[in-house]
Amino acid sequence: MANSKRVLFQKRRMRVRNKLRKVNAGRVRLSVHRSNKNISVQLIDDVAGKTLAAASTLEPSLGVVGKNNVEAAAKVGAAIAERAKAAGVEAAYFDRGGFLFHGKVKALADAAREGGLKI
């Protein structure tokens, strides 16, 4: 029986997350979720089990509501870098989930790096 796309996505997501947990213990996780319409990102402290900061294309303050393109992802990346500084986070590890590191996900990561967040 062939695996569905969702099952393969979940396997890829857990493989990425488990590898990152082994290598980057103690650092904050920058978790990305991309849907067909939006992209969102969260800074998560796994030790405390709390979200420290978040940004999304659903926020009217970013001016990208309803847009799902590379430019919108870059604005979200810049916003999360700014909010990370406000929360006192300087370094995080990038959890791309099951998404490939290109296009919108790469643009978000690059913008966060340019904003001063060490990934």
UniProtKB/TrEMBL annotation:
Keyword Ribosomal protein: yes
InterPro entries (alphabetical): Ribosomal_L18 (IPR057268), Ribosomal_uL18_bac-type (IPR004389), Ribosomal_uL18_bac/plant/anim (IPR005484)
GO terms, molecular function: 5S rRNA binding; structural constituent of ribosome
Keyword 4Fe-4S applies: no
Gene Ontology biological-process annotations: translation
Similarity-based family: Belongs to the universal ribosomal protein uL18 family.
Record note on quaternary structure: Part of the 50S ribosomal subunit; part of the 5S rRNA/L5/L18/L25 subcomplex. Contacts the 5S and 23S rRNAs.
Database matches in HAMAP family: Ribosomal_uL18_B (MF_01337_B)
Name assigned to this protein: Large ribosomal subunit protein uL18
Phylogenetic classification of the source organism: Bacteria, Pseudomonadati, Pseudomonadota, Alphaproteobacteria, Rhodobacterales
Gene (name only): rplR
